[in-house]
């Protein structure tokens, strides 16, 4: 491709809503453009990268015998009502009506569609196992679309669905998918960790997330260096060692704590640490207020709470000041378990029941109780674990200290069990003619998100550094001074020859200053660079790799050998 013809609108300035590097570089290098919040267009370079990622995903799916299909983005409401997710999915679902007032959505995912499609055709054990996938556009009206194509409202996902005769076969399909994902992300040169995930709204029993490691990522992961334990912070179960406790129960006392609302204020007022307090958090779930108690030095794990109360994420929020006043009779900051409005359900993290002589809010503005003890002074619904895991917690598997890291969820695999086959009536007849449930799995890869994740792991101050495998072009030939005939002629010759050999080559034949050309080459991150400059007459060019600083002057006869060496170095 000649750059004089390439549609590559680069930008000097980055729009202010681009917070992270991949978003900035995708815009600056002219790979994507925003249409509206969370909706992007892919320009030629972006489309090429996307297609390359898709190709690898497709090859690895095909390699495990999954068959490609393509389902509609428009989905009728009926199947979602049948599965119960029409309401459960909440405001993240884009909904629409046709001219006959029939309801539809733009598919955020396709469990319902695949299950009903298969239900209508599959009835015998002979048709199982079955694995189908698609690479298709998904729609989710995210609460906070951000980070460009990482959390967008329209995005490309590979979603695969597996159908098996029994739970063992479902698990086998799951591990096969796991292996295929490892191959996919290895080939894409993504540095990732596989962590236990929460199955959330998807339902089912077991799930793992493939997390591309990046500081900018929204996933917090917890892992152990001594064993293989790794999970998202939401999924991780916490083992808390509470500090040494007094043995004797002291008498409860009401204490005047004027203008003291935060844990930090309380720590200095009572000259103790947050571990000596129990926080009472008030939340509104579908209009009803619930209270949750956890040790004062820890954060609430909302996902664990949602499971206990059987609610979806969009159905819960922190109670507003008005509600707090109504249920506690006090201003915000003084909620506690004693004297809460009668019908409020109080969920108590088990560790609180093990604490002794702790401090809680008194449900009265400017007052706290000290020397409070569970059972003697109040009771609630005790829950095993409601706190978010954090750095330094103990591994639930081996007891070593856990570590934390951040990343971007690029893929996940779910064992769905029979959730959807039960709800939508997908069964098969076994060898004896008996009706059996189909065991399912659902497995996604964020194709467009992966493109951004690769940039998050491969860039420098000058721009993107694409790995060869997904680079929009392998090689860029920069004619340093296009006005010099000998330079442009050699550039043309190399362009023709290398293209004929099957390499994907960009020829910068633009009538621009050398500095502009070099900057663009670095910004768009083409892995192999050949600069045709003042020694063109001697058939000597400058050869450089985007991932390295050094440039080498070489004879054109050595070029191919150098290119091959780089392909080899990158495992191609
Ligand atoms: P997240 O927790 O980041 O919202 P999710 O758990 O909702 O992700 P899934 O429903 O499992 O995601 O979707 C499968 C894959 O699709 C994810 O692993 C992710 O890579 C990608 N994905 C999900 N939501 C988005 C989005 N809004 N924009 C881009 N990619 C997304
Ligand atoms: Mg999501």
Automatic annotation (TrEMBL):
Gene Ontology MF terms in the entry? proline-tRNA ligase activity
Record keyword Nucleotide-binding present: yes
* Group of enzyme by EC: ligase
Write out the coiled-coil annotation as residue ranges.
none
Catalysed reactions, semicolon-separated: tRNA(Pro) + L-proline + ATP = L-prolyl-tRNA(Pro) + AMP + diphosphate
**Cellular localisation:** Cytoplasm
InterPro entries given for it?
aa-tRNA-synt_IIb (IPR002314), aa-tRNA-synth_II (IPR006195), aa-tRNA-synth_II/BPL/LPL (IPR045864), Anticodon-bd (IPR004154), Anticodon-bd_dom_sf (IPR036621), Pro-tRNA-ligase_IIa (IPR002316), Pro-tRNA-synth_IIa_bac-type (IPR004500), Pro-tRNA-Synthase_IIa_type1 (IPR023717)
**What PROSITE patterns does the record point to?**
AA_TRNA_LIGASE_II
Gene3D superfamilies per the record?
A: Anticodon-binding domain (3.40.50.800), Bira Bifunctional Protein, Domain 2 (3.30.930.10)
Print the keywords alphabetically: Aminoacyl-tRNA synthetase, ATP-binding, Cytoplasm, Ligase, Nucleotide-binding, Protein biosynthesis
Query: Where do transmembrane segments lie in this chain?
Result: none
Q: Which residues form the Aminoacyl-transfer RNA synthetases class-II family profile domain?
A: 33-467
Q: What is its main location?
A: cytoplasm
Q: Which Pfam families match?
A: HGTP_anticodon (PF03129), tRNA-synt_2b (PF00587), tRNA_edit (PF04073)
The reply to whether ATP-binding figures as a keyword in the UniProt entry is yes
Task: Give its E.C. classification number.
Answer: 6.1.1.15
Its function, per the record, reads: Catalyzes the attachment of proline to tRNA(Pro) in a two-step reaction: proline is first activated by ATP to form Pro-AMP and then transferred to the acceptor end of tRNA(Pro). As ProRS can inadvertently accommodate and process non-cognate amino acids such as alanine and cysteine, to avoid such errors it has two additional distinct editing activities against alanine. One activity is designated as 'pretransfer' editing and involves the tRNA(Pro)-independent hydrolysis of activated Ala-AMP.
Q: Describe its assembly.
A: Homodimer.
PANTHER family in UniProt: MITOCHONDRIAL RIBOSOME PROTEIN L39/PROLYL-TRNA LIGASE FAMILY MEMBER, PROLINE--TRNA LIGASE
Domain notes for this protein = Consists of three domains: the N-terminal catalytic domain, the editing domain and the C-terminal anticodon-binding domain.
The record's similarity note reads: Belongs to the class-II aminoacyl-tRNA synthetase family. ProS type 1 subfamily.
What is the protein named? Proline--tRNA ligase
- List the source organism: Filifactor villosus
């Amino acid at each position: 491709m000649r750059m004089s013809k390439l549609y590559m609108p680069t930008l000097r300035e980055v729009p202010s809503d681009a917070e992270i590097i991949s978003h900035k570089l995708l815009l600056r290098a002219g790979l994507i453009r925003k249409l509206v919040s969370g909706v992007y267009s892919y320009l030629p370079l972006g489309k090429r990268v996307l297609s390359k990622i898709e190709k690898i995903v497709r090859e690895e799916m095909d390699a495990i015998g999954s068959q490609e299909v393509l389902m509609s983005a428009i989905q009728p409401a009926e199947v979602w009502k049948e599965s119960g997710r029409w309401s459960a999915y909440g405001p993240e679902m884009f909904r629409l009506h046709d001219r006959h007032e029939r309801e539809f959505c733009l598919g955020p995912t396709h469990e319902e569609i695949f299950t009903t499609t298969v239900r209508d055709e599959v009835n015998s054990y002979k048709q199982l196992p079955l694995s189908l996938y698609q690479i298709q556009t998904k729609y989710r009206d995210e609460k906070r679309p951000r980070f460009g194509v990482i959390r967008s409202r329209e995005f490309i996902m590979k979603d695969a669905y597996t159908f098996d005769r029994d739970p063992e076969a479902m698990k086998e399909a799951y591990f096969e998918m796991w292996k295929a994902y490892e191959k996919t992300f290895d080939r894409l040169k993504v540095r990732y960790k596989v962590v236990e995930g929460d199955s959330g709204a998807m339902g089912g029993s077991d799930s793992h997330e493939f997390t591309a490691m990046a500081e900018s990522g929204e996933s917090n992961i917890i892992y152990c260096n001594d064993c293989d334990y790794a999970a998202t912070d939401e999924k991780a179960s916490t083992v808390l060692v509470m500090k040494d406790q007094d043995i004797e129960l002291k008498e409860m006392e009401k204490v005047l704590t004027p203008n003291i609302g935060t844990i930090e204020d309380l720590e200095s007022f009572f000259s103790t640490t947050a571990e000596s307090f129990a926080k009472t958090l008030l939340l509104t779930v579908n209009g009803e207020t619930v209270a949750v108690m956890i040790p004062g030095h820890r954060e609430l794990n909302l996902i664990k709470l949602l499971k206990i109360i059987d609610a979806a994420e969009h159905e819960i929020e922190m109670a507003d000041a008005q509600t707090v006043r109504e249920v506690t009779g006090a201003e915000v900051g003084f909620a506690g378990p004693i004297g809460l409005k009668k019908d409020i359900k109080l969920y108590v993290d088990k560790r609180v029941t093990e604490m002794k002589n702790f401090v809680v809010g008194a449900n009265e503005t400017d007052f706290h109780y000290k020397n409070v003890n569970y059972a003697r002074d109040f009771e609630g619904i005790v829950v095993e674990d409601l706190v978010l895991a954090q750095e330094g917690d103990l591994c639930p598997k081996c007891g070593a200290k856990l570590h934390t890291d951040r990343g971007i969820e690029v893929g996940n695999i779910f064992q769905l069990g029979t959730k959807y086959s039960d709800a939508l009536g997908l069964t098969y007849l076994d060898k004896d003619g008996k009706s059996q449930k189909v065991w399912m799995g659902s497995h996604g890869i964020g194709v467009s998100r992966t493109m951004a994740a690769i940039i998050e792991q491969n860039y420098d101050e000058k721009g993107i550094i694409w790995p060869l495998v997904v680079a929009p072009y392998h090689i860029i030939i920069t004619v340093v001074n296009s006005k010099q005939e000998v330079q442009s002629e050699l550039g043309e010759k190399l362009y023709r020859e290398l293209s004929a050999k099957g390499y994907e080559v960009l020829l910068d034949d633009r009538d621009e200053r050398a500095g502009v050309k070099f900057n663009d080459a670095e910004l768009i991150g083409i892995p192999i660079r050949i600069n045709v400059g003042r020694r063109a007459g001697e058939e000597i060019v400058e050869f450089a790799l985007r991932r390295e600083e050094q440039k080498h002057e070489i004879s054109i006869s050595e070029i191919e050998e150098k290119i091959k060496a780089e392909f080899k170095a990158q495992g191609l």
